[in-house]
């Protein structure tokens, strides 16, 4: 199972990602150890959807 997620930054920028551990990934974004965290600074989780695998999530 993987989660597709959309983050929205305070300036309206959006970041779409796919992960197998959403809570870990959000922590990485918040600590700015990831590209999305650096681009968005303060952000909110806008959307999530669960898929069986990465291939399906990217389709």
From TrEMBL:
Domain of life: Bacteria
Organism from which the protein derives: Candidatus Desulfatibia profunda
Pfam families, per database record: GIY-YIG
Coiled-coil regions listed: none
InterPro entries: GIY-YIG_endonuc, GIY-YIG_endonuc_sf
Protein name, UniProt field: GIY-YIG nuclease family protein
GIY-YIG domain mapped to chain residues: 1-59
């Amino acid at each position: 199972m993987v989660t597709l997620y959309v983050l929205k930054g305070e300036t309206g920028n959006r970041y779409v990602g796919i992960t197998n551990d959403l809570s870990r990934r959000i922590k990485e974004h918040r600590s700015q150890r990831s590209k999305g965290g650096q681009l968005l600074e303060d952000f909110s989780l806008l959307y999530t959807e669960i898929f069986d695998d990465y291939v399906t999530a990217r389709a």
